[in-house]
Amino acid sequence: MSSLPIVYHPAYVAPLPPGHRFPMAKFSGLYERLLCDRITTTDHVYQPGPPPQGWIELVHRAEYVNAYCQGTLDPKAQRRIGLPWSPQLVQRTCTAVGGTILTAKLALKRGLACNTAGGTHHAFPHYGSGFCIFNDLAVAARLLQQQGLVQKVLIVDLDVHQGDGTAWIFQNDPSVFTFSMHCEVNFPGTKQESDLDVPLPEGMQDDAYLRCLNDYLPGLLEQVQPDLVLYDAGVDTHQQDRLGKLAMTDEGLYQRELQVLSTCVAAGYPVACVIGGGYADNLEALIYRHSLLHRAAAAVYAQYRL
Question: Residue 45: beta bridge partners?
Fold first, then answer.
């Protein structure tokens, strides 16, 4: 067991209609699994609160934020998000953004920290999409810059889907470098332009994936020299993911997390992690897949004596 900082709040789970395809229960399940497997203890878990609305509006337009929070978003915009509105979902959405902000601040202090939610990278300034309402990665980056805690941020997005909202938000901002390595033939149908996009062929397996990642990440760190790395560790690259189209295994995912975290930490760059996407019929298997991030992070945290 390590003293790796982990961020969680019970509000990360909001009720959804029976049979909804978004696996909301995975967030509480992940937290319970980390405690049960002694990856962490409650002493090392930090609880966020929802951020002031002004923080969210550093990225998102006020009219969109107000409409979503008050439940007055038009039905078409609501359908694009894919999650039915409720006051509990508003609380969940805002608290998860607060969680990524807290995770980023902990990473700056401790070198490495992990959220148990986050990675809502399909959210644009004026609308939500693909289960993403507010873009937690973008809000955290902008806020930390505004507060003078960081100047340069590198977003490493390894979710199977391109981080299109994040790419669009920072398209003309050289202070935030967006790197997205994703399946080429997958959602979103219309891709945006990240600072570095690496589209992957359908069916790519562990070895090829890890080699590809190694071709880019070390050089990218050297080029960008960020004050903070925000890492979206989506596990929808797994071969059994319902929305994935790549063919990674549990072992491959664990090696990916070790590779990203050790490469960044060894070079002296703090890393804040979010869990990103993951969709499977077997909820327990999905929860375990997400826990690989925290297992790898605990190992790296201990190895580098952070």
Answer: 6
Number of Cβ within a 10 Å radius of residue 154: 26
For 98-137, write each residue's pLDDT tens digit.
999 999 999 999 999 999 999 999 999 999 999 999 999 9
Distance CA 273, CA 104 (A): 8
Sheet with 6-7, strands from edge to edge, namely 45-46, 6-7, 112-115, 271-274, 228-232, 153-157, 176-183, 196-200
Instruction: Please identify every residue annotated as catalytic.
Output: 122
Task: With H, G, I as helix, E, B as strand and everything else as coil, classify residue 230.
Answer: strand
* Whether pTM exceeds 0.85: yes
Helix and strand element counts for the chain (H, E): 10, 8
Q: Is 104 strand, coil or helix? A: helix
Give the model confidence (pLDDT) of 174-193 as tens digits: 999 999 999 998 888 889 99
Tokens of 68: 């979503």
Q: 176 by DSSP, 3-state: which?
A: strand
- Other Cβ atoms within 10 Å of 77 Cβ, number: 15
Q: Retrieve residue 149's tokens.
A: 């805690």
134/121 Cα distance (integer angstroms): 8
Residue 194 in contact with residue 178, Cβ under 8 Å? yes
